[in-house]
Amino acid sequence: MKSAKLDNIDHQILEILIENARTSYTDIAKKLGISAGTVHLRIKKVEKAGLIGGTSLLLDYKKLGYGFVAFVGIYLEKADQVKFVLQRLEVIPNITVAQITTGKFDIFCKIRAKDINQARNIIFDIEDLDCVEQTEAMFFIEESINDKKRLIKTIFDEY
Length: 159
Fold this sequence. Notes:
The chain is α+β, with helices and mostly antiparallel strands. It is 39% helix and 19% strand. It is built from 6 helices and 4 strands; from the N terminus they run H-H-H-E-H-E-E-H-E-H. Helix 2 (25-32) packs across helix 3 (36-48).
């Protein structure tokens, strides 16, 4: 990040975009008292430095009928089977995140399901995969912290 040489204006632009990536350059410019062209150039500079890229769409899975969330830790028979198992997990659409981990699990997944019965079946599908020794599931009760700007403010303060 230091190679990009971001200043306070860059930080403010990024904070606005973190809050809403669809904010127009004109609206950002009005909020910050600068020109839309300046906003455009600064965003391009940050993109070119590789600090940001693209935008994402936030889906409300609950409204789509997939409000049940489970986290599944996967133990493998051997650590060298991670890539093989990840390829099999990619086929299961309800697995929205799969990460290689250190510590207790070899792979840690987030799944979304319609209800506990569907989640159970997905977990059974994971357990049926070759090389999976066992799983451990935790069910999501409530998301208590989801603040996209907390870490970036700390990073900017350190910068």
